[in-house]
Amino acid sequence: MTSRNFIIVGVAIVLGLFAVYLGNAYFSGVETRQEQIAAQNKMVRIVVASQDLGFGTVVSAQNVRLANWPENSVPAGAFMSVEEATHNRVALRSIVVGEPVLNSKVSGTNGRATIAANLPAGMLAYTVQINDVAGVGGFVRPGDVVDVLITRQIPGEGARAYDKMTDVLLQAIPVLGVDQTADQNKTDPAIGRTATLQVSSFDAQKLALASQVGVLSLALRNVTDKPLGPGATVLPRDISNSRYYIAARASGAAPPAATAPTIRAIIGAAGRVGAALPPPRPAGPSMTVIRGVRPTEYEVRRGY
């Protein structure tokens, strides 16, 4: 009985070894055939993703593979071996199944996903403060494109505290991160306190100065939309269609009666600044007579 058991175990071991040999031979044959096909069709073997890789995902032999690729269209930065592509690297950008794993989409050999690794040459990452309003209600996310607006006091000795102006400081600026999130796949709205923007050195200087002299806010832009030119400065008078102002009162003068008008138009129908002020409206009952396109108001006096 004991010898029979030994025979069964021995046969099982032999069959297991034979199965391993057949498996190795099969996979080696598949690899060899793929290399032969690539050589015949003037193709090369490059590393592609075998599953979706999100920001910060460790690149390993379990989520990448070699695939045939036309030799004359190999993308720059492609890896030719799995060992090189998986040596202490993580994904810096989203990579989908079948997409080539490129040097620009993974970290170096430090194995860390950093925003600095995503920056093109000559560009800087600069962080500005935002809130639920300045950050477009939390809809600004990594990968978006924004315009940066600045609201500040109008310069000049005669400017008062409420004399404000708004300018478009920068246009079509890529957003690298919001707070400490740099994953472009996270698109759900989230209120952030800071936004990290990709800017040139000069634009970073403008942002640093602008944050000291005014209030910055962001405006979302379609990623395919191109700026048409520098934006115009918006003044308080531009936010009203009526163009009214409150006339100054003489020092010590009594306040006008409740029925007397104190608001005067400062811009005519054609939009020209400095147009003549219209006559004051009657305090009592009145009627309007229109001659052509010009209205005239007359006070209606009651007979006694």
Low-confidence stretches: 258-277
- Counting structural domains, the number is 3
Helix content: 10-25%
How does the helix and strand content classify structurally?
A: alpha+beta
Q: In what order do the strands lie side by side in the largest sheet?
A: 3-6-5-4-7
Give the topology, please.
Blueprint: H1 2-40, E1 43-49, E2 64-70, H2 82-85, E3 124-129, E4 145-153, E5 164-178, E6 194-199, H3 201-213, E7 215-221, E8 244-246, E9 263-265, E10 286-291, E11 294-299
Antiparallel strand pairs: 1-2, 3-6, 4-5, 4-7, 5-6, 8-9, 10-11
Task: Explain the overall architecture.
This protein is an alpha+beta fold and 304 residues long. The protein folds into three domains: 104 residues, Alpha-Beta Complex (Type Iii Antifreeze Protein Isoform Hplc 12); 119 residues, no CATH class; 65 residues, no CATH class. The protein is built from three helices and eleven strands. Strands 3-6-5-4-7 form a five-stranded antiparallel beta sheet. The relative contact order is 0.09.
Question: Which terms would index this structure?
Answer:
single chain; 304 residues; alpha+beta; Type Iii Antifreeze Protein Isoform Hplc 12; 3 domains; five-stranded antiparallel β-sheet; two-stranded antiparallel sheet; 3 helices; 11 strands
Write a brief caption for the model.
This protein is of the alpha+beta class.
